[in-house]
Fold this protein.
Amino acid sequence: MRDGERLLFGAWKCGIGIKSICGGRGKCGSCIVQIDAAAPDALGAPSAAEAALLPAHPQGGTYRLACLCEVRGALTISIPPESQAVRSTPRKPFTVTAVAARPTATRVTFDIDAPDTAPPRALTTRIEQAAASALGARAVELPLPVLADFSCVPGFDTAREVTATVLRDRRIVQLLPGRHSRNCGVAVDIGTTSFVVFLCDLARGQILAMRTAINPQAMYGEDVISRITHIQQDTALLGNMRKLLVDEINRVLIEACAEAEVLPDDVVDAVLVGNPTMQHILLGLNPQPLGRTPYLPVRSEGVDIRACELGLAIAPQAEAYVFPMVSGYIGGDTLAALLTRAADFYRGAQLLVDVGTNGEVVLAHNGMLSATSCATGPVYEGAHIRCGMRAAPGAIERVWVQADGAIRWAAIGEANAAGDKRPIGLCGSGVISAVSAGVRARLIGRDGALAPPATHRQLHANSEGESDELVLVRAPYARTGRDIVLAQQDIRAVQLGKAALRAGVEILLAESGVTQLDCVYLAGTFGNHLQPEDILEIGLVPPLPVQRVRSIGNAAGDGARAALLDRHQRRRAARLAQRLSVLELSGRGDFQDLFVMHTALSPAPVAILD
Ligand code: FES
């Protein structure tokens, strides 16, 4: 670490992820670390602002906020489980297993004429003629940088057999002497929290290896607004964030290549999708306009760019495709999710919902597509709640109350290194499940208030005698050594997020004249973990039979793979971007009324708006 560097950022650079909900601004208290040993003057004393956010240490040790500590000497720290920025592992990283292989990049091996073949022709001409003949094309294009790379390969001018990677049967992007049959591509689904890399065989349409990793930009905050704010304050951070992400994608990609025994140079095509902020940062575009009215992207069309210009560690002249964006919040990930929907999605009234810190909702109604996005807040990512955490091992993802009143839970598996399987906290779906279970068992009213303390032995009262938390797991059974609770303020956060999403859905339905949905598709990590009966119980989506609420896994990742393996899907994505009409909620007068109406935790029917 650099002398004086803040502990949070230094740790991330060393590959140690510390939670940073507020992006290192000393506001959230999520980056608490324990100081085990420190050289004299390694750390200054905590400021008043830092001290105010530090909890008392149970054994009299020292806690500090990693984002506010400037390190000037040797230091040993421990990171409590709740402060660890663990990766959010998609448990259904893909649902579509095979895609018809019609790739954009194909490989063809051919023989070229010897240099002394009459009439005498330059190497370029001989390669272009042989490639065109092998492809059955009238002509192919051989760009100078590709030829320049080839001319540095030993034996390039004497090779008779050459393999060319050709884009769209037209442009050569790589030349290799000899026969090379492996033709691979990579699809990357970039989330604000984590990303997924799919290494695929382009000829067979199959996944060769898959990896997920945390998005290292998380050191600058867990949501897109924090990252945009950082860039607003210091534009140089745009380059830093871009490099952090690309370096991490490359690291993970090299691992995936090693697993599949593929050389990075055999990866000749790439498709990348993400929300608009992630795509802007990836492309080096300043995302500030996304965060202010009228919330427009700097560029909306899809981008074909050379992989080396993006910094991707694949065949240097290979092309990468970054999906189009529709608005400030409807980006390539939403379009990619839509790509996975077949013709039946466009019949009747179907809703596709992807909930995270922001909720993106797309309505398909009789062939028309409309979309909106609503600020659901961090609760659905397990953030800003008392015992919240990401959907990772140790996170409670499901809660239920037995007939005898006993509170039961199920956590995401995997013990830590010491074999400890006890839960750590609640992830987003765990919070929703706990609230739904509490409502069903009447421990929580439809107005969101916890029942009086006398109602249940695990309801704790505050100094005024009112319930302020429901204990889900007692301290001895939790890995943190503290009770895992659902606090009254957590329930309020669920209500606010739910009300925002539902108000957006209501406006979308009203604008299309829809009063009854045929199906709701839940996309994304959060959607994967949700129980349909839980979201129907609290009215997160309009009422419909439970079997008509379906999780569609990592639809954005599936869509990215579809666009990698089937060249027609890129054109389809561009057409979808044109078709999708976006409804902006910020200026709507009816939003507030609907928002208030839907703070109730009840399965309210679709409202008929004037
Ligand atoms: S207080 Fe340190 S990241 Fe928020």
The chain has five domains: 5-83, 105-177, 184-332, 333-378+494-597, 379-490. The longest helix spans residues 236-260. The chain has a mean pLDDT of 91.
